[in-house]
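// run 5 | inverse folding | seed 20
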């Protein structure tokens, strides 16, 4: 029985290889394959997709960026966590290829040229913004702030300045959320939500074609803790089972959003609205962030990740 199952699996793989070779190598059209193998054209399309999912067909795009990507690690991570794409970068500061510069090169190939993208907060996103002047200009693109600003603590936890930097580099339209990121109570939040301009901006976050976010970690050195943004929550965030946050919403090792007591006080995109966005890019690196990145991938909170080779090896 087991032998028969293995034989069937082998035969199916050979069949998928044959169709993939006819289509991608020999240049047959789907209609021609349909006629040659006496199967429906819709079945050909389905089998080609199966060949991709099984790793029989893999694509590489020739560009300067590709030589700095770790294809073998990307392939393993992509299959393990079911991502749209995985970008694992080798860097060489001496050659002028920093993580931020390479991440900018990749983003130039995937960001829409019109519509809107939502931007999270953090020093990594700000640093990437300093490299985006090398990207194609996008005057019809709106850059939307996903969560409120930090006021005097903006230098510690960049939010508004991320949108400023990216919009300036891409020649896009900056869309700011004129409110604090975290407030003291739900009542205070409701007061801000009574402002039409804030409600309008929160609607903009729901319309984003894509979101690009940092992935924060927990612990005493986490940004939200070190910046003392929610002092009453510091003990919870440093001693609980939460491993990271996206847009100030915390999640556990399985990628399940929790910490409702804090999320309800965040002025910005909600966890449910965030997960409705089709393209969710997470940018993070560093050993201390590995557990947070892994949690975000387990829960499919992001479906594209951009990280470094060192961090990716820890994820494996």
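// decoded
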């Amino acid at each position: 029985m087991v032998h028969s199952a293995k034989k069937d699996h082998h035969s199916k793989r050979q069949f998928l290889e044959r169709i993939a070779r006819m289509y991608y190598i020999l240049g047959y059209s789907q209609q021609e394959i349909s006629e040659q193998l006496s199967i429906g054209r819709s079945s050909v399309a389905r089998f080609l997709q199966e060949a991709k999912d099984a790793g029989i067909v893999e694509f590489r795009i020739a560009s300067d960026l590709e030589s700095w990507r770790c294809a073998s690690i990307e392939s393993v991570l992509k299959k393990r966590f079911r991502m749209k794409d995985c970008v694992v970068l080798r860097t060489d500061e001496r050659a002028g290829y920093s993580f931020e510069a390479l991440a900018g090169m990749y983003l130039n190939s995937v960001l829409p040229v019109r519509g809107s993208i939502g931007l999270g907060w953090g020093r990594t996103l700000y640093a990437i913004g300093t490299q985006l002047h090398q990207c194609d200009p996008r005057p019809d693109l709106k850059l939307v702030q996903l969560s409120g600003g930090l006021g005097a603590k903006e230098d510690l936890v960049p939010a508004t300045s991320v949108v400023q930097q990216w919009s300036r580099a891409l020649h896009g339209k900056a869309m700011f959320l004129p409110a604090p990121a975290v407030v003291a109570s739900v009542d205070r939040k409701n007061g801000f939500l009574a402002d039409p301009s804030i409600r309008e901006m929160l609607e903009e976050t729901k319309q984003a074609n894509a979101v690009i976010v940092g992935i924060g970690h927990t612990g005493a050195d986490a940004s939200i803790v070190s910046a003392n943004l929610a002092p009453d929550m510091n003990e919870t965030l440093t001693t609980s089972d939460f491993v990271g946050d996206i847009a100030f919403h915390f999640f556990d090792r399985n990628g399940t959003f929790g910490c409702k007591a804090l999320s309800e006080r965040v002025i910005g995109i909600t966890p449910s609205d965030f997960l409705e966005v089709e393209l969710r890019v997470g940018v993070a690196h560093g050993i201390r962030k590995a557990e947070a990145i892994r949690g975000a991938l387990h829960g499919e909170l992001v479906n594209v990740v951009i990280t470094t080779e060192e961090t990716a090896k820890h994820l494996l």
